[in-house]
Amino acid sequence: AQRVTQPEKLLSVFKGAPVELKCNYSYSGSPELFWYVQYSRQRLQLLLRHISRESIKGFTADLNKGETSFHLKKPFAQEEDSAMYYCALRTGANSKLTFGKGITLSVRP
Amino acid sequence: GAGVSQTPSNKVTEKGKYVELRCDPISGHTALYWYRQSLGQGPEFLIYFQGTGAADDSGLPNDRFFAVRPEGSVSTLKIQRTERGDSAVYLCASSYGGENTEAFFGQGTRLTVV
């Protein structure tokens, strides 16, 4: 069975500091990996996916199959990045998403 | 449309009662998913519909939980004999289905069993 681990519950940084949100997964095949974000009082929304290999709002994430990781990074955090972030895994088209427990990112002015 | 719509947004019920939670997906989306999110946890999969049929119901915790999607659009999650442990936010998501499609989430229904 697949599993997603986000080892930290909270990350608090000052504006302009680098951010790395950790995500590790376990799955024997080739999964799709995603980062979802939930801003205060808003719905869960997709931030980025590994197959797109793009930067969204300055965030990037690289799939490392050797380390089974998909860490989310941003070089200079902004206050508006404060939110709950979830790493998720999918094992095929239309299959369910398996989520980690999430991490709260707090960016202080 | 405005996105995935879930009603009610909040529901308080007494232990042992029956509840129905409704999800209106984005028009044209054939895939529909239900998830449950307990406090401090990520969303956990319950059931997936492709069209009218339940393609994967492996996440339903027990036979008190049932979901339908009779016309391939709106879905209803039904919980019988509610227990305090059923208290959670119930999320619905929909997508076009297939490769590389994004799932869009609703705001969720917060269910509290007292």
Helices and strands in order:
The complex is a heterodimer of chains A (109) and B (114).
Chain A: E1 3-5, E2 10-14, E3 19-21, E4 24-26, E5 32-38, E6 45-49, E7 60-61, E8 72-74, E9 83-90, E10 97-99, E11 103-108
Parallel strand pairs in A: 2-11
Antiparallel strand pairs in A: 1-4, 3-8, 5-6, 5-9, 7-8, 9-10, 9-11
Chain B: E1 5-7, E2 10-13, E3 19-24, E4 31-37, E5 44-50, E6 53-56, E7 65-68, E8 75-79, E9 88-95, E10 104-105, E11 109-113
Parallel strand pairs in B: 2-11
Antiparallel strand pairs in B: 1-3, 3-8, 4-5, 4-9, 5-6, 7-8, 9-10, 9-11
Description:
The complex is a heterodimer of chains A (109) and B (114). With 109 residues, chain A is mostly beta strands. Chain A has a single domain (3-108), classed as Sandwich (Immunoglobulin-like). Chain A contains no helices and eleven strands. In chain A, strands 2, 5, 6, 9, 10 and 11 form a six-stranded mixed β-sheet that branches. The model of chain A has no long low-confidence stretch (mean pLDDT 94). Chain B is an all-beta fold and 114 residues long. Chain B has one domain (5-100): Immunoglobulins (Immunoglobulin-like, Sandwich). Chain B is globular, with a radius of gyration of 13 Å. The relative contact order of chain B is 0.33. At the A-B interface, β10 of A face β4, β5 and β10 of B.
